[in-house]
């Protein structure tokens, strides 16, 4: 329904290309997810109705996955952050499924990425203190029965966190 208002350009792979207004909308929403349609429309130079339709299309097309508040972990008592590299015992389907389920169900795992190199996965993990983080690794990760080895790198100081994607670098 939303798509009928726009003539959409597609790239050589058939992916919908963003126009200048949509790029501006995405930049603003990354900085301020609570921006009203009126604020967005004024910032990008569109009237509210077409701006709202573009936001809805960006949501429907999956460019905007969700809206969230960014919290201060230290104020919540979370003082230990680490990156944990994980190597699985094998790459069997049930091994990967068990590990994936563990990651999905563990609130202490903030991020998980499948990686290249000597390890299979990289986890971003949080805990109240270093001892609680060690306990999580020893009790929960290593006792899964599917993890061969881990290497942990504690974060000493966070220099930049969850920066916005460089939307302006996307070709039109």
In words, what does this structure look like?
The structure is a single chain. The chain has about 170 residues and is α+β, with helices and mostly antiparallel strands. The chain folds into two domains: about 1-70, Winged helix-like DNA-binding domain superfamily/Winged helix DNA-binding domain (Arc Repressor Mutant, subunit A), CATH 1.10.10.10; about 80-155, Lrp/AsnC effector binding domain/regulation of amino acid metabolism (RAM) domain (Alpha-Beta Plaits, 2-Layer Sandwich), CATH 3.30.70. The protein has five helices and four strands, in the order αααβαββαβ. Strands 2-3-1-4 form a four-stranded antiparallel β-sheet. α2 packs across α3 (about 50-60). It is elongated. The chain starts with 19 loop residues before the first helix and ends in an 18-residue tail after the last strand.
Strand and helix layout:
Elements: H1 20-31, H2 37-44, H3 48-60, E1 80-88, H4 93-105, E2 109-114, E3 121-127, H5 130-141, E4 147-154
Antiparallel strand pairs: 1-3, 1-4, 2-3
CATH topology of the largest domain: Alpha-Beta Plaits
Flag low-confidence runs: none
Secondary-structure-based class equals alpha+beta
Quote the beta fraction: 15-25%
How many beta-strand elements?
4
Report the helical percentage.
25-40%
The H/E string reads HHHEHEEHE
Number of helices: 5
> What's the CATH class label of the largest domain?
Alpha Beta
What would the average pLDDT be, to the nearest integer? 90
The end-to-end distance, rounded to whole angstroms, is 23 Å
Q: Please compute the radius of gyration using only Cα atoms.
A: 21 Å
Largest beta sheet, briefly? 4 strands, antiparallel
Tell me the domain tally: 2
CATH architecture of the largest domain: 2-Layer Sandwich
Can you say what the CATH homologous superfamily of the largest domain is? Lrp/AsnC effector binding domain/regulation of amino acid metabolism (RAM) domain
**Spatial ordering of strands, largest sheet:** 2-3-1-4
Shape: elongated
